[in-house]
Amino acid sequence: MSAGAITPSGAVAQQRGQAGPGLQPGWGVSPERQQAIAEVLGGQVPQAGRLAPGRLRAVTADLAARRDLWADLVVRDPDVRWYLPLYRSSSCDVWLLAWERGQDTDWHDHGGSSGSFAVAEGCLAEQYRAPGGRRVARRRVLGGEAVAFGPAHVHDVGHDGGGPATSIHAYSPPLMAMTYYTATRYGLIARETVAVDGPEGARGRGGPGTALAAASASAASLTPDALPDDGPSIDELLAEARSGLARLRPEAAFAALTDGAALVDIRPLEQRAAEGEVPGAIIIGRNVLEWRLDPRSEARIPALARSDTQIIVMCSEGYASTLAAATLRRIGLREATDLDGGFQAWRAAGLPTRPVQSPG
Ligand SMILES: [Fe+2]
Asked: Separation of 187 CA from ligand 1 center, angstroms?
């Protein structure tokens, strides 16, 4: 995920200064308009506290019905999903979104916020994780309808065909972070968490005096001068590890396997489930790797834990595998190395892969 701003339903806006029309949070809503919106919401939105999903549904439904407050602000962009923050308080934030055919959000949650969206024009389709299970439920949300959800809701919202769609979204507490998920045969697996960029950071949960504000200020003040100088950075550690390895590109690794080398996959199950596996690779969790491969370890795998075995460590992209291979060399596996580019380079080279095998 790039470092751009994130919309309430997941689009990545461009960096400030490069933003297209409407992609900059706050653009296009005049103080007068903000005041008019605040008056509409005045009776429904407390200055502080958490709004229940039912209350959020009333917020989005009421605003969706007030076309005079937002219709002239909408920008239709076939390439990038468009959004605009309409309103913020300490208790909730409200966004205007536009949807073109083919646009959707990908699977995500709302960082613990409850939420609602109302469709003002067109039609949206929502897939969501049914409570308490892996099952995925689906519903269409037509113009004039609104749905609401609690803090555990995980969904993927998209345009449902037909003409352009417009929707109003509200979240309480205001959105601060969202986690994206990959749909796998094991269900939805968390992939990454991204901070929601936008002015709500100054007025919502991250406002002055909060722990989040203190943590942000602390992180911002960290400079190289403030860091310990008696150890390498991760970049230096990686460079040092690589200087001692003859790393193998996928084709060379594939050839080495036919000569008796062992490909050791250290990726966690979640990653293998999402990405796939290499047939014949030996799966050893990173947390037990050294104990399985040290020739002196009681927990070793005898066929592999030999100083003359060529171990080729594989991770997803070829970073963690370098450090692991360097450690294996230190404990005596002098032929250990790693797969340059990891599983992703292997797959890109067209070498054999398969879906993850069921554990049992
Ligand atoms: Fe969402």
From this structure: 18
CA of 274 to the centre of ligand 1 (A): 22
CA–centroid distance, 115 to ligand 1, in Å, is 8
**Distance of CA 273 from the midpoint of ligand 1 (Å):** 24
Instruction: Please give the distance, rounded to the nearest whole angstrom, from the Cα atom of residue 178 to the centre of ligand 1.
Output: 9
Among 186, 55, 188, 59, CA closest to 128: 188
How many angstroms is it from 116 CA to the middle of ligand 1?
8
Return the beta strands (E) in 27-176 as ranges.
82-88, 93-99, 114-121, 123-129, 136-142, 146-149, 155-159, 165-172
Give how far the C-alpha of residue 275 lies from the chain's centroid of Cα atoms, to the nearest Å. 15
The answer to whether the predicted template modeling score (pTM) of the entire model surpasses 0.85 is no
Indicate the DSSP class of residue 356.
P
Tens digit of pLDDT at every position of the chain (360 positions): 333 344 444 443 333 333 333 333 445 577 888 888 888 888 888 878 899 999 999 999 999 999 999 998 888 888 878 888 888 888 998 999 999 998 888 899 998 999 999 999 999 999 998 876 668 899 999 999 999 999 989 999 999 988 999 999 999 998 888 888 888 777 788 888 887 753 322 223 333 444 444 544 555 555 556 666 778 889 999 999 999 899 999 999 999 999 999 999 999 988 898 899 999 999 999 999 999 999 999 999 999 999 999 999 999 999 999 999 999 999 999 999 999 999 999 999 999 999 887 654
Spatial distance between the Cα atoms of 86 and 67, rounded to a whole number of angstroms: 13
**C-beta atoms surrounding 357 within 10 Å:** 10
How many whole angstroms from 5 Cα to the centroid of ligand 1? 15
Find the 113 Cα to ligand 1 centroid distance in Å: 10
Ligand 1 centre and the CA of 344: distance in Å? 29
Radius of gyration of the chain (CA): 25
Q: How many angstroms does the Cα of residue 7 sit away from the middle of ligand 1? A: 9
